[in-house]
């Protein structure tokens, strides 16, 4: 659970003194840099207000103010404990006793999406925002602006799944992501005691197809190594793809690689130690000599700038796409294929799967085992081809003998 930055500041607006000579005591609440003002319901004269201490000189009113501030802190901690997230709007609503964010599905989902905007990798935020948009589209299709958690039943979940598949034509894996998002919101409501149980918990997910791990072969990798590009942008893409194939870094990890992430041990061996931008899991990978050579061509000293001068994701993916076509490797080559290539290459070199998991920053070794399945499938396919070839030879020999 990520702790928010939080502060409260009582003050008065000396420019708005009422007819009786008093001014309202307000409270500025700030959560993660965003502020909102709320009235404390207490007034005092400007002469009674101690701006330096944020107190009233009148003992009774100062006691009321202290109680109000304590309530703000208590509500903040309660919301944070219940939700794992909090915004200044949520806190203000609770203090005004108009907390609709906790009772309505879309409103609550929006607050979580906003938290992802500031607390997680951008790609993760974009995924959550998309799933929230789909949920909103479905609720609006029911002629509702929002729906209370207590009005959601199993039928709602089944209809949402049908909406995604029939009306939007979404594939099974996409439908599952959207259902996961809805389930997460429902379980949050259970945690907050808004509902007693998740009514859509038993709704089945769509059967997922076996994952396609796009990677390039060792021969294609060697071809890429030996074929520099004349175009500067495509050459940067080639070098970064090779670097990622030897280090397991994703696009965002390469883009946010800084000189301080690169260290050297007592034997002079360089390595990268960094947290994955997507998951926050630390990975450790020794640098291959080719990866070291690529690093030497870029920034390894100025820690105010990243190592590689990468542009936006769409640009580097277009450049990698171009690279794949130029080299005749694939007309659909994407940057993430480099990370999959690393996993397969390491397994083919008999590196222990536990070591590969650590180098790739996998929190669970089952994620790494996917690469083992890819390797095993290739072996199986190669064996099938060998058997088929021998069978063709056998039949050909039989025909020859028959003549």
Automatic annotation (TrEMBL):
InterPro entries: Arm-DNA-bind_5, DNA_brk_join_enz, Integrase-like_cat_sf, Integrase_catalytic, Integrase_recombinase_N, SAM-like_dom. It comes from the Bacteria. One of its GO terms (biological process) is DNA recombination. Gene3D superfamilies: 1.10.150.130, Intergrase catalytic core. Keywords: DNA recombination, DNA-binding. GO terms for molecular function: DNA binding. PROSITE patterns: TYR_RECOMBINASE. Pfam families: Arm-DNA-bind_5 (PF17293), Phage_int_SAM_5 (PF13102), Phage_integrase (PF00589). Residues 211-384 form the Tyr recombinase domain. Signal peptide: none annotated. This is Tyr recombinase domain-containing protein. It comes from Phocaeicola massiliensis B84634 = Timone 84634 = DSM 17679 = JCM 13223. The lineage of its organism: Bacteria, Pseudomonadati, Bacteroidota, Bacteroidia, Bacteroidales.
């Amino acid at each position: 659970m990520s702790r928010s930055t939080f502060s409260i500041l009582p003050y008065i607006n000396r420019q708005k003194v009422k007819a009786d000579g008093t001014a309202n005591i307000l409270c500025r609440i700030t959560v993660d840099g965003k502020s909102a003002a709320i009235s404390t319901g207490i007034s005092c004269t400007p002469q009674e207000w101690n701006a330096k201490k944020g107190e009233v000189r009148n003992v009774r009113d100062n006691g009321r103010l202290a109680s109000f501030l304590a309530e703000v802190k208590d509500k903040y901690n309660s919301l944070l404990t219940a939700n794992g997230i909090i915004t200044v709007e949520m806190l203000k609503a609770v203090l005004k006793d108009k907390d609709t964010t906790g009772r309505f599905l879309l409103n609550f989902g929006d607050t979580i999406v906003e938290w992802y905007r500031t607390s997680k990798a951008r790609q993760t935020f974009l995924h959550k925002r998309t799933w929230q948009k789909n949920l909103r589209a479905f609720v609006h299709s029911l002629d509702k602006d929002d729906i209370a958690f207590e009005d959601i039943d199993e039928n709602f979940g089944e209809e949402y799944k049908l909406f995604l598949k029939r009306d939007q034509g979404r594939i099974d894996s996409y439908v599952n992501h959207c259902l996961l998002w809805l389930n997460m919101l429902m379980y949050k409501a259970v945690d907050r005691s808004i509902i007693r149980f998740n009514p859509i918990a038993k709704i089945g997910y769509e059967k997922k197809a076996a994952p396609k791990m796009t990677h390039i072969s060792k021969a294609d990798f060697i071809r890429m190594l030996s074929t520099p590009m004349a175009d500067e942008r495509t050459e940067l893409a080639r070098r970064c793809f090779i670097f990622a194939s030897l280090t397991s870094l994703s696009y965002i990890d390469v883009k946010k690689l800084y000189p301080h992430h690169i260290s050297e041990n007592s034997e002079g061996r360089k390595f990268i130690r960094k947290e994955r931008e997507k998951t926050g899991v630390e990975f450790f990978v020794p640098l291959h000599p080719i990866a070291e050579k690529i690093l030497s061509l870029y920034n390894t000293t100025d820690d105010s700038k990243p190592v590689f001068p990468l542009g936006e994701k769409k640009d580097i993916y277009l450049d990698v796409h171009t690279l794949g076509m130029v080299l005749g490797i694939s007309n659909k080559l994407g940057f993430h294929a480099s990370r999959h290539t690393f996993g397969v290459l390491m397994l083919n070199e008999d590196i222990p799967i536990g070591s590969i998991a650590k180098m790739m920053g996998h929190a669970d070794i089952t994620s790494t085992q996917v690469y083992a399945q890819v390797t095993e499938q290739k072996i199986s396919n190669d064996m099938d081809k060998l058997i088929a070839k021998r069978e063709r030879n056998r039949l050909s020999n039989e025909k020859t003998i028959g003549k």
